[in-house]
Amino acid sequence: xxxxxxxxxxxxxxxxxxxxxxxxxxxxxxxxxxxxxxxxxxxxxxxxxxxxxxxxxxxxxxxxxxxxxxxxxxxxxxxxxxxxxxxxxxxxxxxxxxxxxxxxxxxxxxxxxxxxxxxxxxxxxxxxxxxxxxxxxxxxxxxxxxxxxxxxxxxxxxxxxxxxxxxxxxxxxxxxxxxxxxxxxxxxxxxxxxxxxxxxxxxxxxxxxxxxxxxxxxxxxxxxxxxxxxxxxxxxxxxxxxxxxxxxxxxxxxxxxxxxxxxxxxxxxxxxxxxxxxxxxxxxxxxxxxxxxxxxxxxxxxxxxxxxxxxxxxxxxxxxxxxxxxxxxxxxxxxxxxxxxxxxxxxxxxxxxxxxxxxxxxxxxxxxxxxxxxxxxxxxxxxxxxxxxxxxxxxxxxxxxxxxxxxxxxx
Length: 411
Known about the structure:
- By secondary structure, the chain is mainly alpha-helical.
- Helices cover 81% and strands 0% of the residues.
- The longest helix is centred in the C-terminal third of the chain and has 41 residues, at 367-407.
């Protein structure tokens, strides 16, 4: 898709690195759990526990490495996280029991979270006047890469041998290493001036942390498509099982085609807050349609589910665009990495807690649980404008204080 190829220069280098990285990610997302359960022969409960531990470890890595990227050369920091992730992923081949698996997965997951934070100063520096829009480009490219990686992983899953799974893991590690190598063509970014004061300012910014919590609750929606809908479709509806793949295809195609366009109109924190509100309403409608699909004839259930996925994806586009906007616009430029690392805490908690919450409410409880989840998204979206306004007041007050401090020596 030509509109997803930036002009030659730093943006193209970052996009190419991101594309190669996400092809590798697609390999692991599709067959990683199967590798550890089918090839390494770990119990599913052990894999789940290890992934949970890794999720907790990764929460701290983003803020710490993001701060490092703010105060040092961000390109080198980001490339280092990719190399660490490549080495840790290659270590999966040697993880033949639980504790080596935990060590490898914690290192890989921590490096991933650290890389996302370390990349943020690069996006802000090379993203032009609208780094938020460039971030939307990268999300579209991410979906293309993951889709290609998933197709390649299908071979390993179909063959099902230890060698096939090990080749998949090695291919994943090579992709991460190649992603780091591509960054050689990216000009280095000089760190910003040292700003005196408390080091961990993102953790002291209560309005920004509130927005992080809002986005984290909304981020549970990403698990609706990958966890709740497949289990619901199989256990509560008569819809054909191949529809699980169909829902993912629809979501992926819509994100690739529409994410950049959706982000162009959300160009201020106020519009980002409004997008949060719209996405919450879209998720409520989607959850209601999914609930109604139970007990319907197969054709009706399939129609309701596909319609729900389209509406859900529209909400996802708004939610992602809102997150891109407010996370960058409300973060001080000299602490972009640290702030974006803090913003990632919300998504990290959603990653860790979202599946359990959705299974408990939507699958175990059943139809009423879908309405509760939809209401949770809606109420969170309605709270977003208040949180954003508070953060804007805090930002303006901080800028006024800084300007006054700069003028003080001259008076």
